[in-house]
Design a protein that fits this description.
OB fold (Dihydrolipoamide Acetyltransferase, E2P), DNA polymerase, domain 1
């Protein structure tokens, strides 16, 4: 129903009887959006864009939001495990970044995952068992969010996706590929072709190694 909300930040609360949440004014309508402490701490501007997930139960409807689309997607994936609801999924994402969570899944490190509040060893093992393939596959196909990149030139979305696919196939993580592409598009304004973006992305990544 909703992908994201963009508007004026009215308030943000970490400790509240409603839990951690923000209120965003979109065209004079105030949306209460539940979120995690990690997200609230990263919100600094008055104008915000929040990717949201709608939870619809028998007697209530609520929105949960994140700064990035990737975090929202992982939040939804976590809830596909029986017994993992909004609250526990938020606690897991407060404890781990996306890259850390995917790495834990790959290593099947249930002890590390059980560091998250409310996640015992049995629950951690269950999450890894049910989600490992989903999260690894998600990490390999998640596209770059072009809207997060401030551009002065038009860049074909297909070119960006193609470059990311090549970089991932070469062994770079999705986050590494995304950061490299963003760096190139933000600092190499004339790089609009696939081959140019790929060339400069590889140069950027080589400097980090």
């Amino acid at each position: 129903m909703y992908d994201y909300l963009k508007g004026h930040l009215v308030s943000k609360q970490i400790n509240s009887y409603l839990g951690a949440h923000i209120v965003v004014d979109v065209n004079n309508i105030g949306y209460l959006i539940h979120t995690g402490k990690r997200t609230i701490e990263r919100i600094q501007d008055d104008e915000v864009k929040v990717y949201v997930s709608l939870t619809h139960k028998e007697d209530t409807m609520s929105l949960t939001g994140f700064i990035t689309k990737e975090e929202r997607d992982i939040f939804n994936i976590l809830q596909s495990v029986s017994g993992i609801g909004v609250k526990l999924a938020l606690l897991i994402l407060d404890e781990f970044s996306i890259s850390e969570l995917v790495d834990i899944m790959i290593r099947e490190d249930y002890k590390e995952l059980s560091r998250a509040k409310g996640v015992g060893a049995k629950v951690a093992q269950k999450i890894i068992l049910e989600l490992k393939d989903k999260l690894v596959n998600w990490a390999n196909i998640t596209p770059v969010d072009v809207e997060d990149i401030k551009l002065t030139t038009e860049v074909n979305q297909e070119a960006i996706v193609e470059v990311q696919s090549v970089l991932v196939s070469l062994g770079y993580s999705v986050n590494e590929a995304k950061n490299a592409i963003k760096e190139v598009l933000n600092h190499k304004k004339d790089s609009t072709k696939t081959e140019d973006i790929l060339k400069y992305s590889l140069e950027y990544l080589s400097r980090l190694s």
